[in-house]
Amino acid sequence: MSRLVFEFLKPERFLVGTVGVPGEREFYLQVKGESSGKRVLASFALEKAQAAALADRCRQMAREVAPNLTIPLVDLAPLETPIESEFALGVMSLSWTPQEELFLFEGQSMANPITDEIYEELITDDVDGAPPIVRARLTGEDLLTFARRTDLVVSAGRQPCVFCGGPVNPGGHLCPRANGFRRQS
To answer: Which of 17, 39, 112, 185 is the most buried (most CB within 10 A)?
Structure first.
């Protein structure tokens, strides 16, 4: 069985967005562009911590390779619909390809959809039964734009409690610094 591959060369959109209210948000990496000769809009589920870590790595790599880049305008538009996850991202990789002068993002499915085997490293395409993968070739400006938007999306969640630092729901929260009493901070 061949591997499902979403391959994008300089996609139109490469961003993180959410669905839902703070505290119950689902995070998605959405990529739009040409893949295998067709226009594709693909969404991939990921965790908030994965999105934040990827944004940090994008910013770090862009500054290492091209330190004088400026951040272009950030795409603040919502995710495009329909938002249906192709798969949940597990292992992700970001590398510089000097011959193309582009960055290569690879995000592999957390598990093989047939065997439910969990993968902790990127699997090559020639391995039989390799899990699905998304690849996107991006510019340094793309990375900085992605990082800036992701920072905004991640920080748009629940505000931290001024006493304990834990997230505060709209109805308050049980604060350990108040011996379990509800705070509305």
So the answer is: 17
Indicate the burial class of 26 (C-beta count within 10 angstroms; 0-12, 13-18, 19 or more). middle
Number of domains in the chain: 1
Distance CA 70, CA 90 (A): 30
- Per the prediction, the chain carries an average pLDDT of 91
Q: What is the pLDDT of residues 65-121, one digit of tens each?
A: 988 888 778 999 999 999 999 999 999 999 999 999 999 999 999 987 777 788 889
Domain that holds residue 92: 5-160
CATH number at residue 111: 3.30.2450
Instruction: Give the pair of three-digit tokens for residue 140.
Output: 């340094």
